[in-house]
Amino acid sequence: MVSTLAICATLMLAAGGCGGSTNQPESSTGPTATFGVDASKFVDMTSKATVEINVVDNTFEPSFVKVSKGTKLVFTNNGRNEHNVTAAEEGAFTGIKQADFSPGKVASLTVGGLGEYGYFCSIHGTKKLNGQSGVILVVG
């Protein structure tokens, strides 16, 4: 007579688990894969066709936005310094140049595809999203 434990052990080896386990990775609502930002920090703006981001000295407000594909992002420089908006991953999107973004200026961009797009001000932040930086999460 074969015991239940032996059957379970045999099934675990053959199917990769016992008790319904599929050994597939679980989906996460925690940190994003690319930039390590917890999903709870994103401001959900998926219902808006245009999203405004306020640029002040050393911050973007909001820094982390969740938008729908095709959303226009409007950046307004309300700071006292020149800024820019640079993609953290080269070629991810066309940013906003410092020469075009002095105090009081408004500039916009649209991120093309689905995914996560880190950005930063190269004067006050870094490509690794330290300092003045943010992430745009584009969903379908």
List how many beta strands DSSP finds.
9
From the N-terminal CA to the C-terminal CA, the straight-line distance is 55 Å
CATH topology: Immunoglobulin-like
**CATH homology-level superfamily:** Cupredoxins -  blue copper proteins
Structural class comes to mainly beta
SSE topology string: HEEEEEEEEE
The fraction of residues in strands falls at 35-45%
Radius of gyration: 22 Å
Q: What's the shape?
A: globular
CATH class: Mainly Beta
Determine the number of helices (DSSP H or I, runs of at least 4 residues). Answer: 1
CATH architecture: Sandwich
Count of the domains:
1
* Poorly predicted ranges: 1-33
Brief summary of the model shown:
It contains one helix and nine strands.
Describe the structure.
With 140 residues, the protein is mainly beta. The chain is built from 1 helix and 9 strands, in the order H-E-E-E-E-E-E-E-E-E. Strand 2 (50-56) and strand 3 form a beta hairpin. The longest helix is centred in the first third of the chain and has 12 residues, at 4-15. It starts with a helix and ends with a strand. The relative contact order is 0.18.
